Each structure stands twice: as C-alpha cells, then as structure tokens.
Give the backbone structure.
Amino acid sequence: MSTEPVRRESHPRDLRAPVELLHLADRENSVVIRILGRHSAQELDGEVVIASTFCNGRLPLRLSARDLDDWARALDELARGRDVCWLTDLRNPEIGVEFDTQFAVPLVTVEDVRGSGTAMAVPVELPEGWIDEQRRRLDGVRRL
C-alpha cells in the first residue's frame, strides 16, 4: 500500500472537496474512505486511507450504486454486532470490521486483494453513535 496520494487524471466530475463515505478513527488509528469525484454516471472514484502510529496506506477505489447498497446492508449487520467484510468482488480493496478479536475494540482491516495482496488491520475505538454517523455519510454520498 502506498502512502502517496492517489494520482489520477482530473475528471470533469471531480468534487471541489472530497466527501467521506466512511470515517472510523480514534486518537491513534483510522480508516477513511473519501469520494473524490465521479468516474462515470454509474461509478464514483475514491480512495481508502488507513493510518496508525506504526504504518500508513492508501489505495484507489471505484464504487457503484450496488457497492453503496452493500455498505448500507453491512451497516445493518454492524448495528447487530456482527462482523462484516465489504467490497468482496475483487474490484476494490476489501474492508472488514470484526468485533470478536483480541482487542477490546473493533478491528478494521483493509486488504489489497486485487494488487499487492497486502493487508493492514488496526484496532479502532469507536464512539457511541458511530453507525448512525456512517449512515449519514452514506446518505450524503448518495446525493452526489
């Protein structure tokens, strides 16, 4: 995973400022998905950024309406306390959230299944209401 910003050609549908679809962070670790613009009428360009006090990484994403629907279903599962793995179709990095780990907090994993095969996992202490906040972010992205 590269720590350099994702480089891509400017697109007429780029956003003036990135919009965060996902933001899971505490004082030490974070996983953020930023929407950078539209690739086409059906797809959004974005990036996933994972950071810790030990290591950082960044990977490009391309999300469809189906991916956003899958994220909504994943949020429902997370609200029930179930582990999820999102973006499992090999087009994008996989994002996993596990509750039952050696840590007292959820473990968030980003795996570059399409490219390097590298995975990075960080424990993230999430505040009350974090799932509702992710749903608000999803609603904002759907309005783009």
The chain has one domain: 14-142. The chain is about 20% helix and 40% strand. The helical segments are 65-79, 130-142. Residues 65-79 form the longest helix (15 residues).
